Amino acid sequence: MSSKAQRRERAKQRRRNIVKNAIIVGCFGLFFLILGIGGIVISRSKYNDYKNSDDIRTVEARAVSSDIHSTKRKGEIRREYWKVKLSFDIDGKEYSAVKDYDYEIKKGDTVKLEVYHSKSGDYKAAVVTTDEEYKMDNIIFIASLGVGLFLIIISIVAALPDNKRQ
Question: Which pTM does this prediction carry?
Answer without folding.
Answer: 0.68
